[in-house]
Structures are given as structure tokens and as C-alpha cells.
Design the sequence.
């Protein structure tokens, strides 16, 4: 009897571990391939997003549905939305131009310059998935998913992509349930300079270090959820991050000593005039 109770508790624990929807946390597959770029050279404070064609040492972006995700923000899902992607819906390359270079790209013919923030070292940049249960969620509603975190790759052929990381058991995205009606989430990728010392996103933003976030995407085929609410059906295969787009980081340097002096003098002058 005691043995049966112990087994029952273990089974309940395993079910709870898989009660929320999961994703395949990787960005290099047949239906998707995105890159993260250093800040644009002429406009480092402005983020650029979108898919790009191949460059020396950087493979072309691959994305599904010809650049339009039918599951994104109310669009009608395609008929095979839960069974995979038709190869005819996959496009290679886009028209976005990135001037900052893929972070971590070490190809001899197109290596990304180190710069002040080690743009040539992928491990100095943290990648984390942010998510919120359900579709059409605003960026402000998304929260970091603790198990979906990695760093960018340092490589001559994989620069700009992140190191795939799969955890087991995977607790999934909080708030997503065990049936088809709650097996969806709005997602985005955040990337930031960790300084090689584990700096957080908030610290990078506060310090004026490089950081960025991808455009939002909506996934309606989360894994480890029971289809149609029928617990007798096996869990479905997790979706990958297809639908996400490449993007560049931004950097907003802190004001220098001279700039701070000008700001202080201006504030003092304004106060005197007001008096």
C-alpha cells in the first residue's frame, strides 16, 4: 500500500512538471534561423528588426509563412498549424540591412569588431525568452522564463545565433494550461551585454550597455499539453521559435563628464532665471 502511494505521488509530481506549455529553445532549424546584431553603426540608439540575406560568415535568415506568421495577433491559422509547416511556406533571406555585424561572428572575411562591448564574444551576451500566456499580449506583460536562457555563440559560421539549451524536466511557460484553449503564448527574445560577469538586463539598461528585444510573436502549439483537453491523448510536440525575427541591439551611452557639466550648468541657470 505504501509503495502504491509513493508511486502515485511521483506520478502527480511528473504531471505537474509538464502541466504548462513548453517550447524548443533554439533558433537554428529548417523552419527558422535568426541572428542578433551589434548596434547599427550610424544609428546605434535605434533598433533595427527584420530578416536579412546571407553575408560572409553569416548564413541567411530562414523564416516561415513568407515572413507573415498566420498565428500572430488574430490572423487566421493555417490548416496544418498543429502538424508542421509546409516547405512552400518557408522563405530564405530578407531585405533588412544590418551594419553592426552579427555578435560573435569570427569569420576571417567578415569578423565582427570587438568594440567597447566585446561584440566578437558571444558568451558576453545573454539571451532569454520572455513570455505571457495567451495571444495579443503587450510587451509589458511578458515575463522572463527562467529555464529558457543561454548566451550567444562565438563562431565563424554560427555567429549571431545562441547556444541551444534544453532543460529536463521543463516546467514550461507559466500560465499556460493542459488543453488546447490555453496552449498558447506571446513571446519575445531579450538579449543584453552581461559583461562576462552575469550582469542582468536591468543592470545593462541602467548602465547604458547594449541590449535589445525581438518583435513579438505568438505560438499556439506549445508542447507537453494535452490536445482537446483529453488526458488520454499524448502530449504534442513543442513548437520552436519560428516567427521570431532578427534584430539589432541598441546602446545609449551614459552622459560623459562634459555633458553632465553642461546639464548641471543649464539646471543652475534655469533656477536663477526662475528666481
Sequence:
Amino acid at each position: 500500500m505504501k509503495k502504491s502511494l509513493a508511486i502515485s505521488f511521483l506520478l502527480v509530481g511528473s504531471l505537474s512538471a509538464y502541466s504548462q506549455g513548453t517550447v524548443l529553445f533554439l533558433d537554428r532549424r529548417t523552419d527558422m534561423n535568426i541572428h542578433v546584431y551589434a548596434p547599427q553603426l550610424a544609428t546605434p540608439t535605434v533598433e533595427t528588426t527584420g530578416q536579412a540575406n546571407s553575408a560572409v560568415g553569416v548564413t541567411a535568415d530562414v523564416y516561415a509563412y513568407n515572413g507573415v506568421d498566420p498565428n500572430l495577433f488574430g490572423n487566421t491559422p493555417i490548416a496544418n498549424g498543429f502538424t508542421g509547416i509546409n516547405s512552400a511556406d518557408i522563405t530564405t533571406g530578407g531585405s533588412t540591412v544590418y551594419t553592426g555585424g552579427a555578435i560573435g561572428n569570427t569569420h576571417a572575411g567578415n569578423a565582427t569588431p570587438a568594440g567597447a562591448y566585446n561584440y566578437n564574444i558571444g558568451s558576453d551576451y545573454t539571451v532569454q525568452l520572455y513570455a505571457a500566456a495567451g495571444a495579443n499580449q503587450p510587451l509589458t506583460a511578458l515575463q522572463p522564463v527562467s529555464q529558457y536562457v543561454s548566451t550567444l555563440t562565438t563562431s565563424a559560421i554560427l555567429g549571431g545565433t545562441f547556444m541551444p539549451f534544453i532543460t529536463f524536466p521543463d516546467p514550461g511557460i507559466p500560465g499556460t494550461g493542459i488543453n488546447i484553449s490555453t496552449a498558447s503564448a506571446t513571446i519575445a527574445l531579450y538579449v543584453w551585454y552581461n559583461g562576462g560577469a552575469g550582469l542582468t538586463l536591468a543592470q545593462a539598461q541602467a548602465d547604458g550597455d547594449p541590449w535589445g528585444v525581438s518583435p513579438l510573436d505568438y505560438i499556439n502549439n506549445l508542447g507537453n499539453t494535452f490536445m482537446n483537453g483529453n488526458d488520454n491523448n499524448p502530449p504534442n510536440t513543442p513548437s520552436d521559435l519560428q516567427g521570431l525575427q532578427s534584430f539589432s541591439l541598441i546602446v545609449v551611452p551614459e552622459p560623459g563628464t562634459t555633458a553632465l557639466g553642461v546639464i548641471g550648468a543649464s539646471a543652475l541657470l534655469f533656477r536663477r532665471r526662475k528666481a
Summary: The first strand starts at residue 28 and ends at 29. The two ends are 85 Å apart (CA to CA). The chain has a mean pLDDT of 77.
